[in-house]
Fold these 2 entries.
Entry 1:
Amino acid sequence: MEAPQAYDYSQRPARLPDPVDDANRDLDIPLETRVEMYEMQLLLRQFEKRAYDLFMQNLVKGTSHLSLGMEAIATGFGAALRPDDYTFATYRGHAHTLARGAPPGPVMAELLGRENGILQGKGGSMHLTSVEHGMMGSYAIIGAHLCIANGAAWSAQMRGTDQVAVSFFGDGTTNIGAFHEALNFAVVWNLPVVFVCENNLYMEYTPIDVVSAVPNPAADRGPAYGLEGIVIDGNDPDAVFTAARAAIERARRGGGPSLIEAVTYRHGGHSRADPGKYRPEAEVEAWLERDPIPMYHQRLLGLGVGEGDLASIQQSVAGEVEAATEFAKSGDFPDEASLLTDVWADGGSAWRN
Amino acid sequence: MAELTYREAVARGIAQEMRRDPRLVMLGEDVAAAGGVFKTTVGLIDEFGPDRVRDTPISEQAILGAAMGAAMTGIPVIAEIMFSDFLAVCWDIVANEMAKSRYMTGGQVSVPVVIRTANGGGARFGAQHSQSVENWCMMIPGLKVVAPSTPADVVGLMAASVRDPDPVVFFEHKSLLGTKADVPDEDVVDRLGEAVVRREGTDCTIAALALMVPRALEAADRLAEEGISAEVIDVRSLVPLDTRTLLASVEKTGRFITVEENPRLCGWGAELASIVADEAFWNLDGPVVRITTPHIPLPAAESLEDMSIPTVDRIHQTVRTALA
């Protein structure tokens, strides 16, 4: 019998990232798109850092799940989507909301529970939604939203719009029943939907491999549903954009669903309460070295973008996050007038006459 | 005017609305080619085709997820959950997603879905295929809850539910499927949130729902033979709830009795009893009485199930004792 697995996960062997694939710089992606992706990654990074700081100042209550280190995935997909496509995300959805073009000010204000928040303070960090930007919601109980994304894709199919729905989820979601129901259903109905697993190696505090039957929790399940098991470098926006573009175009042409597993790593813990101490130090260090943003900075320099141009983008993003923070802080706390509104379509909450 | 069974009325109501709204679609397990395991959707695929009436895998989360995603992007949907007991396997989508999305998103998301489901006991199916779970739904803010007792109400309340922009759970009672009554030939469109006085009376008010309505009416007939005049109200819609009709009746009769198929704790009658106690206390001439299923899982054996769900005898005896 093998010895029982250590329960101090930080003592397990580190799972190190693959090296950057330099061939990705030669992928067919317009330079303009790349510069936009650089800017979006910076926005997501600075926004999340600011959200963290505002927690520390006790201005953000409750919990929050940051995408620090994982920005390339939301960015790559955001760049590949058409404005009328649909995004469905999890509680870790700040990045996906911003990557669809939702304004940072109202998003930040929502984290602060202000009436100028994008949900008027009623949803909070875990439910960010901006229907006008195709961001159809952040779903805080994982799994359901894969099924709901199917519905949006079905609707697009029925309306003949060639819109595509993309559903983002973590590695932990691959072990919940709804994941399996959603994949089977999407294939059987040939729906224009793309399932994107952000595999950051930890379900919450537990390594995903400890609780999964297969090494690649999403991609290895794909073939059971007739889907190709696609694994990509989730820390390279060019790899993500290329995979996203292919899957979205396939769905748009009527080619049906895709399942993409993007391997990445979160720089922090699962949520506000978690320092992430269950991870081997060498692993954290190696993944911090594989940070998508400095890598992309170097790649853009190599492609001929000037250091000055990148510096001015950094400056403008810093200003944007500063303005978003000021906008958020300036908002009032929602008052009693909004407490009982919007349960029903009539705007109210009456359950009796 | 034609006589229809409750079962036929379900398909009639759906067809009426699918003819009216070409966007409306329906999905569920065995609902299309087979016409439903309860034969409540017979003929719909022939009239509306396989793109609008669709069979699904046994995947309740996938069914309701698809319904919700389509509804929030402009396609109204009727989804069938075969037995209401199965709501437990997709409850996340019902209670956490459909019900809460509008509020959580500051009004951005609308979910015009009707979840149809076969509810209630009397078929000797045992504890997992016989429950009355309308009270589960009633306690979730954001869900509307309807349970018709007659074929005409099935059609009219189906229409009202489909036309409602909020999620509605529509309970079809398994033991009423074979019952028959007249339904107008023209389109029938009812309103949610209106109770109906099925029998007028002066001595007590009996509030009932679905299968309990015909039982309460029969009990009222027997009570009348003994000189007790019972008013029977078919609640029809738990959310929205027509408290006006209930309170006006209690003001007249001075006694209030509920007849519920729910197990005792937190059955819908408890909420009605609370409202009557709060708002009609000075009209009451005696305690509120709740006639319910005991707080047990439903047994399968005929003899045991018949002891569990309120019968005409139990209603009759309980009311007679209470008013003695």
Note: Chain B has two domains: 2-183, 196-323.
Entry 2:
Amino acid sequence: MLFGENSMNKAKKTALYGVLTALALILGYIETLIPAFVAIPGMKIGLTNIVVLFSLYAVSERAAIIINIVRIIVLAMLFGSPLSFVFSLVGGCLSTAVMILLKKSDRFGMVGVSIAGGVTHNIGQIIVAMLVMNTKAIALYLPVLWITGIFSGMLVGFIGGLIAARIRTD
Amino acid sequence: MEKRLLRKNDFYLIAALLLIFSAIAAYYFMVQDNGAYVKISIDGEYSGSFSLSDDTEYVINGYNGGVNTLVIRDGYAYLKDSSCPDHLCENMGRISKTGQSVICLPNRVVIEITKDDGENEYDTIVGALFVRNNSDPAIFLRMK
């Protein structure tokens, strides 16, 4: 634990959570500006996951959960719709849960944890889409979302991992 | 707790995920064949189907007043002139293979390629009377 959350006073903790949430929001906004990832619903690089991964390893599991949920709520209010809110909430919760479990198992590196998060995020979104639209047709996007989940997870894992390994705030 | 970027298990994980991907992709590739009909559903409800062999255009009245234009040309179907804010469905391309679909989320319109006209259940219950003209004029407005 780089930031040693237990030794942190409340003000420092609040500030840290705030900064990380703001960073996640900015990355989420930047992502909506990349047109290449708009054609297929649910397909994302998941830049915000860099912050979640960093929080998970450098701060605490609790921080990762809280920052991700606040990020999803605020992003949906700013740029999204009720529907996109449900999509990202399910995808986000599922991927955070899987990432925490894999990290706790202590068998995988940060890249592996991030890849698992990326893939489960996309699967979560597809499940919600199938339920909302009441159609199985949407499952056709599964292969493309699966493969983008792997590669975006890899990218996020390297970036988040390198940052978490280098940042010190003592 | 170890904080390493890559560990041996990560490679197994990547290999397993890629393997599952190729299995899914191979399955999808095998089940695909040219469809004969395009089926339209609005808000999850079946609302009609059209043959891919007739070149036509229909205006679809979707959920909450949303409007899409369905175009059938040269055996392909696609959506254009959507009233939704994001216009994603217009960029989802032309479809012709069974199981492919184009979805307009804001208007809750799904068009999907099928083998049959999707009226088989209807057939057996109601009989052949309504089978040919299954397009509801309240939903579909023929343009061409």
Note: DSSP finds two helices and eight strands in chain B.
